[in-house]
Amino acid sequence: MVDLSALKQRKAELESRLAHTETALKSAKRADDSRRKIIIGGAVLAAMRAGEIDGSTVRGILGRHVADRDKRLFDGSSLAIGEPGQ
User: What's the pTM value of the predicted model, to 2 decimals?
Assistant: First the structure.
């Protein structure tokens, strides 16, 4: 005879392991995405220092693609983002 309670217990254990594994995968993907962003930022800054990319180009990109709440992080730097139209 099949022990139904044992099967239910096993199912619960497997579902828990699956949930933990999915959470770990999501965390790893977020970490990889953050690392990619940091690497891209570093490469862009290095290209600016080398004169391969103009600062105004980067400021324009930041002005269009950075959330307003994050733009203040650039205040006081060479990449300070002015108000639209500036």
Answer: 0.69
Amino acid at 59: R
3 phi and psi angles, rounded to 5 deg: -85, 100
Do residues 44 and 66 lie in contact, with contact meaning Cβ atoms separated by under 8 Å?
Answer: no
Tokens 């690497």, located at residue: 39
C-beta separation of 37 from 49 below 8 A: no
Contacts of 71 (CB under 8 A, 6+ apart): 62, 63, 81
Question: Alpha carbon of 67 to those of 74, 75, 85: distances in Å?
Answer: 12, 14, 16
Structure confidence by residue, pLDDT tens digits, 36-69: 999 999 999 999 999 999 999 999 999 999 999 9
Confidence bin at 83 (pLDDT 50/70/90): low
Return d(Cα 48, Cα 57) in angstroms, integer.
Answer: 10
